[in-house]
Amino acid sequence: LHVQGNIIFTPIILDIPLSCSFPNPCKELASHLGLDPSFTGLFVFDVGGKDWQFYDWSKVTTIATFGKYDPELLCFAHSKGVRLVLKGDVPIVDIVDPANRTAWINNKVTLAKKQFMDGINLDIEQEVNKTSPEYWALTALVKETTEAFHREIPGSQVSFDVAWSPNCIDNRCYDYAAIAESCDLVFVMSYDEQSQIWNECIARANAPVNQTLMGYDDYLKMKINPKKLVMGVPWYGYDYVCMELTQKNVCTIAKVPFRGAPCSDAAGRQIPYKTMMKQINSSMSGGLWDDVQLAPYYNYKDIKGNIHQVWYDDPHSISLKARYIKDRGLRGIGMWNGNLLDYSNDTVARQQSTDMWKALIPQEIPLVP
Ligand SMILES: *[C@@H]1O[C@H](CO)[C@@H](O)[C@H](O)[C@H]1NC(C)=O
Ligand SMILES: *[C@@H]1O[C@H](CO)[C@@H](O)[C@H](O)[C@H]1NC(C)=O
Ligand SMILES: *[C@@H]1O[C@H](CO)[C@@H](O)[C@H](O)[C@H]1NC(C)=O
Ligand SMILES: *[C@@H]1O[C@H](CO)[C@@H](O)[C@H](O)[C@H]1NC(C)=O
Ligand SMILES: *[C@@H]1O[C@H](CO)[C@@H](O)[C@H](O)[C@H]1NC(C)=O
Predict the structure, then answer these.
(1) Domain 2-237+312-364 class?
(2) How many angstroms separate the CA atoms of 213 and 208, rounded?
(3) Is 110 strand, coil or helix?
(4) Which of 20, 22, 65, 250 has a 20 to 30 Å separation from 96 between CA atoms?
(5) Which ligand minimizes its atom distance to the CA of 213?
(6) How many whole angstroms separate alpha carbon 287 and alpha carbon 299?
(7) Is 36 in a helix, a strand, or coil?
């Protein structure tokens, strides 16, 4: 745990405001700095390092920090009125007991206060059976975490990450309606949508437009308030080795079972957007577009001669999904994760990264912070 007083800032690139200097930096909560209500709710996952310097700070409203605690990031975020939230993950079996649950929550609240953070993102992607003890405990965890944070850190935000659809994806049979009701927002992870392939074992898009939007339709059908839903889009794709590639670019993949399904995207490898952008122009196929899934892909041959098919999201496919936010009045959008773009000084890479940030808000839709 960092002790604030021991941190010495070296604000070379950033214009760190005086309020962030030694000895008691960033005391103010972002929520106290006043967020512009016309801001798009843009929820960014950050996994560490200094890429955050290159984020589009005119749009970001929340950063969930999944990397090491970085007081420089905290100060900068607060200077922009942006919330910084902790990561929360715990084996569900450990919090079925109410006393253990309270202990876990108190621990997180204490940590958040020590670090001057503005809330927590609960990222618990474990299997849960409907109406099992874990099912009730998980909902209680969300409710009690939200109550504790709101009480101890006024204006703080508690969010919960859910699968692309509420239909027991990967055996995550949670009480989604109650969970959404119990926290400030749910981040819908609209990716890894081929984690359970029940039909043909072939490479498909990470987040096909139609499948993605059907997931939101299903959440809304449960009477979840659209203002609780943040759309999560992937800034990564999947690289599959093809057992066979047909003339029509159908790539058969190895059968890797996952949580009861015979076949899964676990047969592929997750690849950052920046990696694919360096590879695509020299690939076998060049950039291709699938008119049904509304997603880009390409084929390439590796040094051993194996053929691969790579599926990903680009500004076009992302903007097709992001439109739904305005149509249905969702709270906002976000991505896994902010670090997957190329923020180097290369002109082409810079433009590609700028375009990815822009695609999140196609028509600069006003959303809820
Ligand atoms: C619950 O808390 C008790 C007391 O601290 C501890 O002994 C026990 O191991 C905990 N149980 C779980 C499942 O974490
Ligand atoms: C869910 O129930 C099934 C069938 O009873 C069982 O095999 C499985 O272990 C359970 N999973 C969890 C996470 O409790
Ligand atoms: C999306 O999927 C639904 C259900 O399978 C289907 O009815 C609809 O036509 C599809 N829309 C598009 C644009 O493919
Ligand atoms: C790939 O080709 C496109 C189209 O010719 C070009 O605009 C882009 O800059 C190229 N990308 C890289 C990384 O060179
Ligand atoms: C990028 O350019 C800026 C300003 O031109 C320079 O200060 C910085 O060191 C460069 N970064 C890299 C990684 O080359």
Answers:
(1) alpha beta
(2) 9
(3) helix
(4) 65
(5) 3
(6) 8
(7) coil
Q: Is the Cβ atom of 21 under 6 angstroms away from ligand 1?
A: no
Instruction: Name the residues annotated as catalytic.
Output: 125
Q: Which is it for strands 307-311 and 236-241: parallel, antiparallel or unpaired?
A: antiparallel
Q: Which amino acid is at 169?
A: I
Higher pLDDT, 327 or 286: 286
Beta-carbon contacts of residue 293 (< 8 Å; ≥ 6 apart): 204, 205, 208, 209, 210, 211
Quick one: pLDDT at residue 81?
Answer: 85
Burial label for 308, CB within 10 Å (0-12, 13-18, 19+), is buried
CB count within 10 Å of CB 351 equals 10
Sequence-distant (6+) residues with CB within 8 A of 88 are 108, 120, 121, 122, 123, 124, 145
Q: Which of 125, 129, 138 gets mutated to test ligand 2 (max ligand atoms within 8 A of its CB)?
A: 129
Per residue in 268-303, pLDDT (tens digit) is: 999 999 999 999 999 999 999 999 999 999 999 999
Given a contact cutoff of 8 angstroms between Cβ atoms, the answer to whether 368 and 332 are in contact is: yes
Domain ranges of the chain: 2-237+312-364
- Taking only the tens place, the pLDDT of each residue in 66-106 is 999 999 999 999 888 899 999 999 999 999 999 999 999 99
Substitution site in 90, 97, 101, 141 for ligand 1 pocket (most atoms within 8 Å of beta carbon) = 97
Beta strands in 246-364 (DSSP E): 251-252, 269-272, 288-290, 295-301, 307-311, 332-336
- Average pLDDT on 320-332 reads 92
Q: Which region, left, alpha or beta, applies to residue 99 given φ > 0 means left and ψ of -120 to 50 means alpha? A: alpha
